[in-house]
Amino acid sequence: MDTHTGGSTPQNQVVAAAAYLLGFVTGILFLYLEPYDKDEFVRFHARQSIAFSIAWFVINLVLGVFIAVLPFALGRLLVGLQELINLGLAIMWIFLIYKAYSGERYRIPELADLADSFSRP
């Protein structure tokens, strides 16, 4: 997990943190909204917000399908697991907001690499 501070301004730190608030919606918004579309710190957090929210959605979608098709007892067990996963992801989401607000480029392993690929031509 790579963390380092860049040359970000306090205003851009707030914007980078806000990129996580509504997941991929605010991520896409700040990825293309001027003047933030030219700030690499904001763009990094916007891309990572998009990747994180999509990953969270896919995890819940896959678990939801399994819950629907498995017998009741196994489905209930998966519901409990899904709740724990969602709690962990919510804590991670708050942590990412905090790191962006603090001016750090906190990279989620593998997910940040995927997010970086969003900006390649």
Nutshell version of this structure?
With 121 residues, this protein is mainly α.
Largest sheet: none
Distance between the termini: 25 Å
> Which descriptor suits the 3D outline?
elongated
Strand content: under 5%
Secondary structure class reads mainly alpha
Number of helices: 5
- CA gyration radius, whole angstroms: 16 Å
- Oligomeric state of the chains? single chain
Rounded mean pLDDT score? 90
How many individual β-strands? 0
SSE topology string: HHHHH
Helix content: over 70%
Uncertain residue ranges:
none
Structure description:
With 121 residues, the protein is mainly alpha-helical. 70% of the residues lie in helices and 0% in strands. It is built from 5 helices and no strands. The chain has helices at residues 10-18, 24-32, 40-69, 72-101, 111-117. The chain is elongated and about 50 Å long. The protein starts with 9 loop residues before the first helix and ends with a helix.
Question: Secondary structure elements and their pairing?
Answer:
Elements: H1 10-18, H2 24-32, H3 40-69, H4 72-101, H5 111-117
Helix pairs in contact: 1-3, 1-4, 2-3, 3-4, 3-5
Keywords:
mainly alpha
